[in-house]
Amino acid sequence: MSPARKFVEDMLARRRVRRAETTEDDAADIRTAILLNSARPGGDRPDEEFVAKLGARLAAEADGKPKGNNRRRFVQTTSVAAAAAVLGATVDHLVQPSPATEEATIVPDQGQWRAVVSSAELVEGAVRPFDFGTVTGFVQRAGGDVHAVSGICTHLGCRLALDMAALRLNCPCHRTAFTVDGAVLFHQLPSTPPPLPRLQVRENAGNIEVLVPQRPV
Do both 184 and 77 map to the same domain? Predict the structure, then answer.
């Protein structure tokens, strides 16, 4: 079974997916499957049956009493219950957003400027997605200046979705979000993923243009 097929089957069965060596075609198929899966009703939420079973088991353990020399089990149980209480309150790691730095800007060796939107259409506060095949991202105007960031999550390479109402970029693969200028907003990962790389952008002849590399980034 190919790595792409195994990944898709595990994802649809809500089993843990693991990293594997893939070809460019495999990676494209996986990204498409992730997007389609996340578009299903409830695709961005954990399995209800799993949550219910976990809650019932933790509640049962938390109600237990230490007996005799069973102190170790009691400590383990109360520790799990305490962790469950924290998870019940929030499962997200909130991060103080900080803008992506200039060092994180992608500068292709070879590329061409491509128009995303007219300058008049990108008003203050507006955000527009773009996809030129070799690069996917978002342009925004803030404080009169124009910025562009990559539209690919820095954790597993999943394509981000714009939530304009919340003014953030959501990852469909795991509950992680970035600000529209690329900073990590919150996540559920063991460690904070890197901010989104910035892309070179300019205003030219009445258009907002990004520098598109010849190879995917």
Answer: no
Q: What span, in angstroms and rounded, lies between the C-alpha atoms of 151 and 205?
A: 25
In SS3 terms, 18-57 reads as: CCCCCCHHHHHHHHHHHHHHHHCCCCCCCCHHHHHHHHHH
DSSP labels, 156-204: T-PBPEEETTTTEEEETTTTEEEETTS-EEEE-SSSPPPPPPEE-EEEE
Are residues 122 and 62 both part of a single domain?
no
Place of tokens 């060596």: 21
pLDDT in tens, 121-170: 999 999 999 999 989 999 999 999 999 999 999 998 999 999 999 999 99
CB-based contacts of 85, cutoff 8 Å, min separation 6: none
pTM above 0.85, yes or no: no
What pLDDT score does 190 carry? 87
Radius of gyration of the chain measured on its C-alpha atoms: 22
Query: Coil, strand or helix: which one is 4?
Result: helix
Q: 179 is in which domain, residue-wise? A: 94-213
Average pLDDT, the chain: 75
Q: Domains in the chain: how many in total?
A: 3
